[in-house]
Amino acid sequence: MTATVQAPFALGTHALTALLGEWRHGGRAHAELAEKLRLLLIDGRIRSGTRLPAEREIAAALGVSRTTIVSAYRRLRERGILYSVQGSGSVLALPPTSAHDDTALPLEIDFSKGTPPAWTELPTFAARALQHLPERMATGGIDLFGLPELRERIAARFTERGAPTSPENILITLGAQHAIALVARTLLGRADRVVVETPGYPHALDAFLSAGARLVASPLTPRGTDARHLEDTMRDARPSLVYLMPDFHNPTGSSLADADRERLLRASSRTGTPLLVDETTAELDIDRPGTTTPFAAFPSHGASLITVGSVSKTVWSGLRIGWIRADRHLIERFALARPAADMGNSVVDQLMATEILPEMPRLLRQRAAQLGVGRDHAVSLLRELLPAWEVPDVHGGLALWVGLGAPLSSALVLSARGRGVTITSGSRFGIDGAFERNIRIPFTAPIPTLTEGIGRLAAAWAAVGTADAGPGRRGAAAEAAFVV
Ligand SMILES: Cc1ncc(COP(=O)(O)O)c(C=O)c1O
Fold first, then answer.
1. Tell me, what CATH number does 409's domain have?
2. CB atoms within 10 A of CB 139
3. Which of 16, 27, 96, 413 is the most buried (most CB within 10 A)?
């Protein structure tokens, strides 16, 4: 294979070993290693154009023979995704896209992100917020907890929705991802266990791993969370944290039953394990807007409950405002841990969020209508064009977790890439390469884009396994490592 690569990124043995995680599953070592590397490349966790460590080094780090590595690398070369660059060793890269015939396809379509369009009234509220800026300019500008009036408004919304909350229970963050990472970095020590549901939201898993934690998987059932399994795992694995997405779980869109919430709160209280509840997508109820109840509204039974949320999926992902709701002492710990990585939120963003929060009920009704149109269109088109796929019924959220009926998710990702569609393979939502039988299809794009994108996915699926499935005429963005 010929390809031009300038200045490949180098991946050290240590980083590669961490990315590989548990790659042995009892089969032939070279085949399993090659497959894991292929998945890491396709789902973007290894950037295209990355130089792998020398065979001898990686063999020593993984405790396998050099022949195993040579055979794994040979397999990847045969698949056209590893090649040698003189003086640079072996480079792992997605197949190059060829220059010819690049007029045949219209714009590239990004199905790797489930982000709704910005709320159209945002400029009005931004203008109102700026009127309050002069009074703020007399202060130093840094506040690790966040603007008092925004904390008050967020607390008031929790209270109105059934979870009595005071502003001291709220810390403003730079979105929900920052909130998750801050909780992880503050509460977790090296090798602590965190129970996560699989499939799950990839960047939360990344945050726990970066804090040094080990992940313990609790698989979702076809109906959603397996509360009994979670309860048993809390008892047996003695984790330091359990991470949940109770409403409109990303990627499956499932919701946790009320009885299971109570059950998990009781288990948390018995075992002393805090529950980290991610409500970033909780208010995206399409069929009954405004009716989801915060987890914190259920009787706590003395459990330690930490809720995170943000305005990313309701208002706009570009407004980097999120929050943590927790016991006041924990909130103080989170604030104290902040300066190692950030010095608080922008005052202007916080003023905007303060203006917008009272509008949430109206905004959520508009969102529900908009997301409902996208969902219904995507579901009916997928069922028409791809009748063999399992397309679920979801009542909220941003995406469909579709069953392909065969372990071909990463093959579909490559084939779609050749047709100008970037999409994330199912494996990105799991641990150690699971979920090759699924793909997440967001329904947040405008209708014409959804129509075109799903049409291209159908063409890409028809070509999977044929000579036409590989490098495309015009590649979409090379990697879908960043998934929201
Ligand atoms: C479940 C979940 N949690 C957290 C986030 C991160 O959200 P934010 O943009 O507020 O950081 C996302 C974004 O996709 C998400 O889906």
1. 3.90.1150.10
2. 10
3. 413
